[in-house]
Each structure stands twice: as structure tokens, then as C-alpha cells.
Amino acid sequence: MKRVAVLQGGISPEREVSLSSGEQVSVALREAGFDVVPITVGEDLPALIAALTPPPDVVFNALHGRFGEDGAIQGVLDWLGIPYTHSGVRASALAMDKVAAKAAFASAELPVARHVLVDIESLAHEDPMKRPFVVKPPNQGSSVGVAFIHSGDNRIAEIVEGWRFGPLALVEEFIPGREITVGVMGGEPLAVTEIRPADGFYDYEAKYAPGGSRHVIPAPIHPAAYAEALEIAAAAHRTLGCRGASRADFRYDDTAGEPGRLVLLEINTQPGLTPTSLLPEQAAHRGISFPDLCAWMVENAACRA
After folding, report:
1. Would the N or C end of the chain have less CB density within 10 A of its end CB?
2. Measured CA distances, 226 to 222, 233, 293 (Å)
3. Which residues belong to the active site?
4. In this predicted model, what pLDDT tens digit does every residue of 228-237 receive, in sequence order?
């Protein structure tokens, strides 16, 4: 019986999400017939290495955010020679660095929003682009730290004062329209889901709180736009060199009618695996159960050692 260590928790702001993902994954893997060892990860790296000794057959990486999906833990596992799920060091680091990822997407002629990287303190003095725009950390996930700035909005000083994500901020043009997402599994796009947040913005609460958003699958968009979203998601997965499963997030601007304009926001190399997560829903839409999805990830685990 294959022994699988499930890494969960971590030290990013997404720790609680990771704990939820890890719990769901452990249940699913046991159902699929694996010997599962959950490992809750904290700040003590030697303790983690000790917990991985002797090494399991596979590590299921259910960590989210910095140090979990930015190439850090992937490098440790490569060093230890333990196969792990999801993307490797390079793809993980690129995807987590939103500016680097956008540069890679643009070079592949994928549609990205106009954006600029600025010193967070400079925001208090002048707008870096015409409003409305979006302010976000350049290296966080799950919409942590994201703020929308509209005409007449006077929250800039409050945002700057409460900023805790380093000296830089990514500022993007605001794309009107709808929020859609596409899961990719082994290079193949699964489906297009439209996300309808209860309060208008797909923030951290909308992502993970029960009732925070409604997911419509397949997304009720123009067939040409649906097909294009599938193509772009698969191309983004290839462009960054992703492995296993990923999820591409878009804005779909249909304010002037359909088919509308698709804008690729980012790619997530560690899609959430909680009860409200999108990738498991899309897999189920394609006839893949949650235990089968998790088992597929384990069977496709690898490392670069």
C-alpha cells in the first residue's frame, strides 16, 4: 500500500484554508486505498524534515500561499528526493510571482490586464493609473490583501497604513464583467465555471465561507468565449511549465455584448481542495470523483531529484 504524507497548515495567511484542504484530501485518499499520514506544518523546518523521515512514497502538498506554493517546499522535497503532487519549483515560483507570471503570459501572447508594480508608499501620494484599479500583493493567493479603488474612493491612506505584504504592490486596471475560472488536469482543461459572489467581489470570504459565492458550471457564456477560455487556461499551464492540476482565473468583460473579452488574471498551481473549491466541482462535472481526483494527483506525483 502506497504511503502518502499530506502536508497541511503552513505559515502563510492561508493556513486555515490549507488545514481544510488537507483534511478533505486525507479522507479522500484513505477512501481511495492509500496509507495516509497527515503532517501539520509550522515554522520548524527541521521538525518537518524529521516527520518525513523515513520518507513516504509520495507527499501530497496541500499547503497554500507563501512557502507552500511558491517553490520553497517544492525545493525541500526535491532535495529530499520525495515525489510530490502539483507543480515543481520553477512553475510554482513563477505562478506565485504575479508580475513574473504576467510577463510570461504576455510573451506567449495571452491576454493580461494592464498593470504596474509600485512602491506601496507612493500610492498615498498619487494614483499610478486611471481609476478604477485594483491593488494586490504581488506574491499572495486567495485574494489576500486585494482592494478595489473606484472614483471618489478615499481608502488609499488606510490601505497603505495597513499594508503587510512587503514594500511593493501590484496595481492592475479594473476589468468589468464576470469572474470565470478554468481547471486544468494533466494539461487538459476541464470546464469553465462562472463565479457569482454574494457581495459582488470574489474575496477571501467569498472563496471559502459557505454561501460566499455561487458557482455556475458550465458557465453561461458565449460558446466562442467558452472555447477560448479553455484554450487560454491550457496555454497558461504550459507556459509556466505546470504539472498535475492548476486553475486559471479570468475576468470576462461582456459589458459591450457577447462574445466578450477574456483577460487572464493568474494561474493557481495549488487549487483549493475544500468543500467550496472549484477544481473538485469541475472534476465532478467531468465524471471524476473527489477520491479519484486526489488519487490521480498522487499517481502523477514527481520530483526533480
Report:
1. N
2. 6, 11, 23
3. 14, 142, 208, 247, 249, 266, 268, 272
4. 999 999 999 9
